[in-house]
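Table S2 (continued). Query chain:
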Amino acid sequence: MHADVAKLVQAGRIPEAVGKRLSEIAPGEFCSHKAWGAGKVESWDLQAGKVVINFERQPNQEMALKFAIQKTEPLDSEHFSAHKLENLDQLRELVETDPVELVKRVLESHGGTMSLDQLDRELSGSVVPEATYKKWWDKAKKALRESHIFSVPSKRTDPLVLRADSASPQETLVMEFSDSRDPRVKIKALENIRKNFAVFEGKGEILQQVIDEINAYCLKGRKLHLSTVLEFLVARDDIIDCFDDLNLADSDIRLADVITTEQDRLVDSLKGRSAATQRKIFETFEDSFGEGWQDEILKVFDEVGSRGVTEIARLLQETGADDVFADHLKKSIANRCLGPDALIWLCREREKSAAEVFTFETGNSILNLLDRDHVADGPNRSVRLRTMLMSDKTLIADILADADEAEARQFGRKLYQSQVFTELDRKSLMARVIKARPETHDLVTGEFERKVEGVISSQESIDRRKADLDKLLKERIPQNVEEIKIARSYGDLRENFEYKAAKQMQAVLARRRSQLEKELAHVQATDFSGADTACVNIGTLVTLHDDAGKAIQYTVLGAWDSIPEENVVSYLSDIGIALMGAKPGERVEVRDMETEKNRFLTVKTIEAYKA
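Corresponding output:
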């Protein structure tokens, strides 16, 4: 008890309990105020009943003694808040030199645990400048995790915890995994364990707790959290492989069992997993499927994202399955069924792993996929593929390197007519085509533009397009304008899903309107009478035989008259282009509309089409 206060107690002027509390706000003592923060008592006047306290956020505040007793709490001189008043420069130096030590001192003053909001109030603005606090905390948080003496929460609602000093490095790493309930944090903790296997040398039994927790989680979470289960099982098996004293029980779940029983959900669960995790899973396919593992892994090859595509390709090549892999790619390219990630891999590896299968047909596959994705008006899965085609300056030249003149012109024609690219991008790409193959120069001359713009079609098909445009102008576009108006009334356009969806549809409708108006402005109607049957022309019925002598008929009509199920094709389609100008006895290569495979046919007869 302060000497001056003790005299008042002895004289009976104040109770002993009041004297003890009054001594806690004697000059030189520390206290805290809910609004003003930590403070140090500078002076008091017991006779006048006043005290002056230098608060963190209210310097030299004069208060009534009675009010000070009620509104402040005593603060130990070793508390972090007291150090902010006495040693602020030293603490600010720790901000840059040792953020781990700084945060450790804060937690030690708060019982070893505190919320992130409490930490913000303790440091932001006073020790760490408020303007740079968020950036500093992001960097400090990483250092805290790497120190292994903290349990760092992934959510702001969870506490930041200072672990006991007595914990060994091994126990700390295990606690990082066990203490968290967030699977993402647990995965990070498993990564730390795998990076620090050396500290567990001779003490691998400590990791049995981790193995047991993984097994329990995987049994419960397999149906709802398959993606996390796969990550956990890969990490578990990696740990067991590195320590002889760790083993799986017969009842423990196996990675191979999960792969075989969860085939339907496997692809979606693999997306987003790290390349190392995907590689481990793909390596398990042989144990899972036996001799048929290569066929099973090729089924998911084009579905698992860019990382998965790369890892499967490496695995197949490293295990001597080059021929199987190459055959699969060739068939998929011919059938136009490769997705964007596989095509991107093919192009990137065209001078290395994919040199054997990278051909002119790869370019056709790219254009076909881009066109299909564009027409679908759905999620743009091929945006990375389109970006690569634009950014890789030598890709088109490599595509056309071994193509004959007809193939080069066909590729250039497809590219020139594609609606996928802006006019500026299309011109840039066509310049590369012409540079690689000068004989395609006339594709961008006025003569070719007249052929392209002056398309021919039946009056019936033209009327259908006019009806589509009329419906677009009178119904769909006005309806979309009203939808945008209603969605805008909901407010907060940044988070307004209805508004964003309506605006996206506006862009789709505008693009469709522009396309229809341009097409209708340059179309020519025909009734297909008087067609020249000396060779395949617009308005002819052509009979062809395959190498086995089986007959097939195609009717070549106008640009918008195709009926695929009846073998009626547009003269601008792949089949139409292949047939146009062919004479009886000539062999042509066409793509079968059912199997999507190329085959050679011989022209037998050509007749005039009769409507």
